[in-house]
Amino acid sequence: MRRLKRPMFLARAPYRRRRLRDAARLLPVFGAALLILPLLWADEGAERRLSSSDVIYFFALWCLLIVVAALFAPGLRSGEAAGDETD
């Protein structure tokens, strides 16, 4: 009995859906790393206090993460509806 050979490469649509899911899973990790970044800006030995530029940075980053997640959402939704991919 002969085994069916699986294709070496995935079709474009399932491949892109998988990469989009991977990017969506990494988004909170990148967001957390970017939120910690202002703590590294402090001078050595100086007391770290929250400044107005830090608050603006946090708010802008928060808005950016929301926009990126909103851009990922339609692609993730269509990936679930297709249901033609096997893991």
What descriptors fit this protein?
elongated; 87 residues; mainly alpha; single chain; 2 helices
The termini sit apart by 25 Å
Going by helix content, strand content and strand pairing, the class is mainly alpha
Rg from Cα: 21 Å
Task: Average the pLDDT over all residues and give the rounded result.
Answer: 81
Strand content: under 5%
* DSSP helical segment count: 2
Shape, please? elongated
Ranges where pLDDT stays below 50 over 5 or more residues in a row are: none
Number of strands: 0
How do the helices and strands follow one another from N- to C-terminus? HH
Q: How much helical structure, as a percent, in the residues?
A: 55-70%
Largest beta-sheet details: none
Structure, described:
By secondary structure, the protein is an all-alpha fold. It contains two helices and no strands. The chain starts with 11 loop residues before the first helix and ends in a 5-residue tail after the last helix. The relative contact order is 0.15. The longest helix is centred in the C-terminal third of the chain and has 31 residues, at 52-82. The protein has helices at 12-40, 52-82. It is elongated, with a radius of gyration of 21 Å. 69% of the residues lie in helices and 0% in strands. The protein has a domain at 52-77.
Task: Give the gist of this structure.
Helices cover 69% and strands 0% of the residues.
Write the layout of secondary structure elements.
Blueprint: H1 12-40, H2 52-82
